Amino acid sequence: MSTTFHSANREIMAELETCMAAIDDQAASEMADRILGARKVFAIGVGRVMLMLQAFVKRLNHLGIEAYCVGEINEPAITKDDVLLIASGSGESAVPVAIAKVSEKYGPAILYIGSNTRSTIAGMAKATLRIPCRTKLNLPGELASVQPMSSMFEQSLLLTLDTLAFMILREKHIVLSDLWQKHANLE
Amino acid sequence: MSTTFHSANREIMAELETCMAAIDDQAASEMADRILGARKVFAIGVGRVMLMLQAFVKRLNHLGIEAYCVGEINEPAITKDDVLLIASGSGESAVPVAIAKVSEKYGPAILYIGSNTRSTIAGMAKATLRIPCRTKLNLPGELASVQPMSSMFEQSLLLTLDTLAFMILREKHIVLSDLWQKHANLE
Amino acid sequence: MSTTFHSANREIMAELETCMAAIDDQAASEMADRILGARKVFAIGVGRVMLMLQAFVKRLNHLGIEAYCVGEINEPAITKDDVLLIASGSGESAVPVAIAKVSEKYGPAILYIGSNTRSTIAGMAKATLRIPCRTKLNLPGELASVQPMSSMFEQSLLLTLDTLAFMILREKHIVLSDLWQKHANLE
Amino acid sequence: MSTTFHSANREIMAELETCMAAIDDQAASEMADRILGARKVFAIGVGRVMLMLQAFVKRLNHLGIEAYCVGEINEPAITKDDVLLIASGSGESAVPVAIAKVSEKYGPAILYIGSNTRSTIAGMAKATLRIPCRTKLNLPGELASVQPMSSMFEQSLLLTLDTLAFMILREKHIVLSDLWQKHANLE
After folding, report:
1. Residue C180: inside a domain
2. CA D100, CA D111: separation in Å to the nearest integer?
3. Total CB pairs under 8 A between chain B and C
4. What percentage of chain A's residues is helix, strand, coil (to nearest 5)?
C-alpha cells in the first residue's frame, strides 16, 4: 500500500469531526425525545445507510425501546403511536419515499435524518436532523469528502445514531452492566 | 424449454406427496405442542432451509407466538422457557451445531426437524420430527429425488412448517380475518 | 393438538394441487426462457414472498445463472440486458411498484408472477405468469384457501419457481452431482 | 434530554481518536494487501459487527473486489485462493469460530480483526489487525469506554474498514466519479 493507514485515517477522521460539529444540538435533542417517547420505532433506509439503521435498531432494543427495521422478519403493524425513522442523504431514495407514503395511512410521525431539508422525505417529516454530507445531488451547504460515494454520510450516521443512543441511555439512567441481559446470547 | 411446466411439476408434486405421507402424526403433534407452549421460539438453519424457517417465524408472530430467527436484528436472549428449533437435513450443519452447543448454557429445549435421527443435533434434541428426504449423507431410508441438491427437503420443510402453523391456528381458534392486524403494513 | 398433521396437511396439499393445475404451460415456458436468456436476474417481493424469491435466486446461481435479490449486499447495477422478476399476489405491493418504476430508467424487462393480471405491476410487465391464489383484493377467478393470509400463494410460488428451476436444469443438461461445486461450503 | 448531543458526541469521538491511534500501520497495510490480492473475500462476524462487515463488503464490490458475507443469498464456494475475514472483539464468537474451522478444509487465509490476539480465531489467522477495544473478557491493554456494550469496537471497526477501503481505492487509482457504475441503482 502506497498510502499508510494513519494518513488515510486522518483524512477520514477530519471529515467526521467537521461533520459532527455541524449537527444541531436542539434538533438532535428533539430526535432523541421522539424516539424515546414512541410506542415503537420503525427504521428504513437503503444500502449501507440501512445497515447503520439496523445497528441503531439493535441498540435501541438493548436499551428497552421496541424498534424494528422495515422488512425484517418480525416487523409488526405500524400505528399512529409509532415513529418512522428514515435516513437518506438525498431524502429522495425510492423505497423510503414509497414507505413514507404508505405510512401516512396509519399516522406515525415521520422522522428524517439526512442532508437534504428540501427533499420529499423532509417535507413529510415531523422532525428533521440534518447531517450536511455530500449527496449525489451536490446541494449548497454540503460538506465535501475525499471518500468514495456516501461513505462520509454513512459513518456520520452511525456516530450520530450511537450518540442519540448514548443520550437516551443517560436519560434513562441505564447501568451498563445490566445491558447484556437483553442481548442475543446464542452466537 | 423442452420440458413443460406440468411434466416437471408433476414429478415434484409426486415427491412431495411421498414425503408428506412419511411424516409421523404423533411426532408432528408433539412438535406443534412444544412450539405453542414455549415462551419464545428461536429458529436456526442454513441457506434455503433458513429461508423456510424465516417464513415460519413470520407466520408464528402473526399467530401470536413470539418467534425469532437466530441472527436477526432484534433477537433477544434465549432462556430455559424457550425452544430452539433447528432444521437441517443432515443434522450436522456447522452453524446450527455451534448454536445448539451455546444454547445448552441457557437451557432451552432443542427441537430438531430433518432427515438424520442419528445426527449430532438429533442427539441434543428433546423432540424430533423426521422428514426423510435425501441428504448429502445418503443415509438408509432417505427418499430419492430428481431435483437439484436439497430442494425436496426445503419444499417439504415449508409445507411441514405451514401445516404445523395451521394446526396451531386451529388449536387457538384463530379467526382468519383477525390475522392481518399483526401483519406488517408498510411495504 | 386437536387437528392431526395429516388431516391439516391434506387440505394444504389439495389446495396446492388445484393451484398448480391452473398454471399455464406456455406462460411458464416463456418465463423460464426469459430467465435463462437474461444477462442477470433481479428479484423483488415483500415478506414471505421475498423469502421464496431468495430461495429461487440462490438456486439460479447454483444453475450458473447470475441472480440477485434487490437490496442484497452485493447487488450490482441493473441494465437493459437484465430482467426484473417481481412476485406479488396483488401486483400492487408498494416497494415492488416503486422499484419497477425506478427500473424503467434502465430498461430491463419486467417479469410478473402473481394473481392480478390487471395490476400496476402486470401492466408494466413484458411477461406474466399467473398463480390464481386468493389475494387481499378478492378478485374474480381467485382460488379460495383455508390457510391464513397468503400462505397458499407463498407455497405455490416456491413450487412454481422450483419447477422453473427444474425446467432450466433440464434445458441446460446439468448433471446433479456437479451442482455442489458452486454451492456455499462454509456453514 | 439532559445530555446534549455535543457533550455526548465529544466523549464518543475522543474514544475513537484514542482507538484509531492504536492501530498498527504495518498490520493495516498487510491486511489491505491481502484483501486486494485475494481472488474472493468472505466476511463473517456477529450482530452489529456483521453489519459493519456487510458495509465493507458492499464497498469492496464497488471497488471491483469480489466480496461476500458468509450466509448471504449468493455466497459461492470458498477456495484456497480466497480470504476469510473475521471480525470479533473477543475472537471467540461461536459462529465465526465454527466457520473458521469449516474453512480449514478449503484452505483460504483467515484474516482476523479484533481485540484479542490470544483468541481461538487469532490463533488460526494468517494475519491480524488489532483494534484494542474493551471486550466482554476485559483483557489487559483494552481501551475503556463509556459506551454501551461493544459500541466502541463496532464504530472503530467501520472506520478501520473504511480506511482500508480508502487505501485500496488509492492503490488502484480509482476515480471517484467512476464508482457509481457498479452501484445498485434500483432503490
Report:
1. no
2. 10
3. 183
4. 45, 15, 40
Q: What is the DSSP letter of B144?
A: P
Q: For residue B2, which of C12, C170, A90 has the smallest C-alpha distance?
A: C170
Q: Are D152 and D134 in contact (CB under 8 A)?
A: yes
Tell me whether residue D170 is exposed, middle or buried, using C-beta atoms within 10 angstroms of its C-beta: 0 to 12, 13 to 18, 19 or more: middle
Spatial distance between the Cα atoms of C176 and C165, rounded to a whole number of angstroms: 13
**B89 CA to centre of own chain:** 10
pLDDT of residue C68: 97
**C186 min Cα distance to partner chain B (Å):** 8
Q: Is B93 helix (H, G, I), strand (E, B) or coil?
A: coil
CB-CB neighbors (< 8 A) of C50 in chain A: 71
From the number of C-beta atoms within 10 Å of its C-beta (0-12, 13-18, 19+), residue C137 rates as middle
Question: Between chain A and chain C, how many beta carbons pairs sit less than 8 Å apart?
Answer: 21
CA of B179: which chain A residue's CA is closest? A77
- Digitized pLDDT (tens) for each residue of chain A, 187 residues in all: 999 999 999 999 999 999 999 999 999 999 999 999 999 999 999 999 999 999 999 999 999 999 999 999 989 999 999 999 999 999 999 999 999 999 999 999 999 999 999 999 999 999 999 999 988 788 888 999 999 999 999 999 999 999 999 999 999 999 888 887 778 899 8
Q: For residue range C126-175, what is the model confidence (pLDDT) as tens digits?
A: 999 999 998 878 888 899 999 999 999 999 999 999 999 999 999 999 98
Could you tell me if D121 and D114 are in contact, meaning their C-beta atoms sit under 8 angstroms apart?
Answer: yes
Q: Is residue B61 part of a domain?
A: yes
- Angle at CA D121, nearest 5°, toward D115 and D122? 55
Distance, in Å, from the CA atom of C63 to the CA atom of B88, rounded to the nearest integer, reads 22
Structural domain for A53, as ranges: 25-170
The total number of structural domains in chain A stands at 1
pLDDT digits (tens, 9 = 90+) for B4-54: 999 999 999 999 999 999 999 999 999 999 999 999 999 999 999 999 999
Of D55, D104, D114, D97, the C-alpha closest to D82 is D104
**Closest chain A residue by Cα to residue C73:** A47
Is residue C112 in some structural domain?
Answer: yes
Which chain D positions have a beta carbon within 8 Å of A4's beta carbon? Answer: 25, 28-29, 167
Distance CA D58, CA A134 (A): 19
Is residue D44 included in any domain, yes or no?
A: yes
Edge-first strand order for the sheet with A109-114 is A67-69, A41-44, A83-87, A109-114, A127-130
Which CATH number covers residue B72?
A: 3.40.50.10490
Q: State the residue for C-alpha cell 486486494.
A: D36
* Residue type (1 letter), A85: L
Sort strands D83-87 and D41-44 into parallel, antiparallel or unpaired: parallel
Q: What is the mean pLDDT of residues C7-17?
A: 98
Strand ranges, E, within B20-160: 41-44, 67-69, 83-87, 109-114, 127-130
- Report pLDDT for A151: 97
Partners of A46 on chain C (C-beta within 8 Å) are 71
